[in-house]
Description:
Layout lengths: L1 H15 L2 H13 L16 H13 L1 H4 L1 H13 L4 H30 L13 E4 L2 E4 L2 H19 L14 H39 L1 H14 L7 H8 L9 H14 L4 H4 L9 H18 L5 H18 L3 H8 L3 H20 L10 H45 L12 H6 L1 H9 L6 H18 L6 E6 L3 E6 L8 H7 L3 E5 L2 E5 L4 H24 L1
Helix pairs in contact: 1-5, 2-3, 2-17, 5-6, 5-7, 6-7, 6-8, 7-8, 9-16, 11-17, 13-14, 13-16, 13-17, 16-17, 20-22
Amino acid sequence: MLSQIQRFGGAMFTPVLLFPFAGIVVGIAILLQNPLFISEDLLRPDSLFFQIVHIIEEGGWTVFRNMPLIFAIGLPIGLAKTAQARACLAVMVSFLTWNYFINAMGMVWGSYFGVDFTNDVGGNSGLTMIAGIKTLDTSIIGAIIIAGIVTGIHNRYFDKQLPVFLGIFQGTSYVVLISFFVMLPLAWITLFFWPKVQIGIQSLQVFMVGSGSLGVWIYTFLERILIPTGLHHFIYGPFIFGPAVTEHGIQVDWAQNMQYFSQSTESLKALFPEGGFALHGNSKVFGSIGIALALYFTAAPKNRAKIAGLLIPSALTAVFVGITEPLEFTFLFISPLLFAIHAVLAATLATTLYHFGVVGNMGGGIIDNFLPMNWIPMFHNHYGMIITQIVIGLIFTMIWFVVFRTLIIKLNLKTPGREEDDEEIKLYSKQDYKNKKSQDSDSSKTAKEDRKLALPKGILEGLGGSGNIKSLNNCATRLRIEVIDNEIIETDAYFKGLGVHGVVRKGHALQIIIGLHVSQVRDKIEQLMKEDRQNNTLSEAI
């Protein structure tokens, strides 16, 4: 059950990866339309500059304005066991069908459900537009549920063989056919129950915002502590992209009001208190530096050069783009205690920042989030808040450093560079593996391809071959695998020797920490598995 939940959580990350670039585009475009930074002559509606910036901004809003549709299409990429592209098509058609059913039922029986479909979308109407369809505003929740149901139908019936005379309905057509009749009662159920859910969500929003610092601490702690399980997606998703504290999610509502916030001299905490639930990125920026320094200075002097090669790219990745897993998993495997302390410090940092008036949309790193969405547009009228944030953040950097260094030395934790066996250091370093492989002077195309496939092949062999893999998925940095027989899986040392950052085991479920190129590794593993199955089929035929 846990592996399925983890698989679902990992799949949610596929559409999430689209938001950083879109956020940067929107943030810069809004900045370029702010009279505090740009001459008013350039901001006249008939100005070519204004028109070009406006056009670019509208393109940047694509992801934000179509989140439910994007989540619906994106989830099957991670959830479908085979034919992911066809699964995406089936989910898209079924999701649109579901919304058309809701629209038709609402127009005909709206009074029965207590929903007036003649109202304009937005506001308190509970309605929205999805792909030109006026429907109930179920945010990403509806998209996730429909995508999960239809992908489940796809996994079960896509390969089902029908009689010859019904052959035209096989595959994707069969999945869509079944889903069509499933969407009909689901639309009725949605119309009956969702308006009541919307009332509950509104109450939750009031409660979460009213909880103040306590709510911020609990949210941030859970978002960090659940990272090893892969369930943190279910914590931040409803806050950042869903309706937990704002109608359209913090990401969208902050961006839509960013122009007004930047020009107002009123406290941002008063204008947007919900922004306290999007401060978890501060631990990525400020905490990662303190952790990296602690790991470096507790390593044996002779090993620090090697450790720096491991820590610097991991820390920079965390600080600039908000991907912390390579760094966090570096110490998670040695001592879960350190990770628990890390989660407590992250929550305490976010709460402290909120107490001193810091709010915003700060769930990522400096490049993709802090600068374009917060610091640059807000600096003119809210520079005091930004300075406060940086000062408190750097103080916590030192706290992270002192706490981690003290615990590592006090408990004699075998963090990288402190192992008695020098060979162990190499197990943590992916660069060592790459360097070793690059020593081969053969520059032919075949040799290059072999080097590219070395890691996927090694992982597949370590997992017991394609026949032992029940499901394969990935999130931002990790492969998520469910195996049939976990007794034949190679040791953690084997996988680390291939250059991965670590392995998490939970029964038949495994997580292999690869890095930001995990999607490419997964694709190559799936390619190898497909070739293996074809070879086995050919052998059996012969």
